[in-house]
Amino acid sequence: MVKNKKGQALVEFIIILPIFIFMILTVIDIGKLLYDKNIMQNNLNDVVSLYKQGNNYEKLGEYLKEKDDKAKLEISNEDNRYIEFKIIKTPVINTPGLNLLIKDLEAKRVINYE
């Protein structure tokens, strides 16, 4: 026979609370990651557009630095047929343990070498 229902509810609440907080933080962090990835894709579109307009690599790096000072631009042209633009950024993650799964965000675009 249970005499104290309030104590039972409190114990159940204390057990569930950390799991609930972890889930909320995870949803918030994943939303921020998706937002950052979208911003990186938009910045990459701008960088590729500037490249097609004839700007050199230094100008592209300066443009990206103005837009996002934590992002890094990598440009590679290995086979002289295609040029690859890549933006890499280390995200800020608040959820414990999620930073073990997600190291860097990356946006990549490959275009014909002109």
What does this 3D model show about the protein?
There is one protein chain. With 114 residues, the chain is α+β, with helices and mostly antiparallel strands. The chain has one domain (5-112). Helices cover 55% and strands 18% of the residues. It has three helices and three strands. It has helices spanning 5-52, 57-67, 98-101, and strands at 72-76, 82-89, 105-112. The protein has a three-stranded antiparallel beta sheet with strand order 1-2-3, covered by helices on one side. Strand 1 (72-76) and strand 2 form a beta hairpin. It is rod-shaped, with a radius of gyration of 23 Å.
Secondary structure elements and pairings:
Elements: H1 5-52, H2 57-67, E1 72-76, E2 82-89, H3 98-101, E3 105-112
Antiparallel strand pairs: 1-2, 2-3
Helix pairs in contact: 1-2
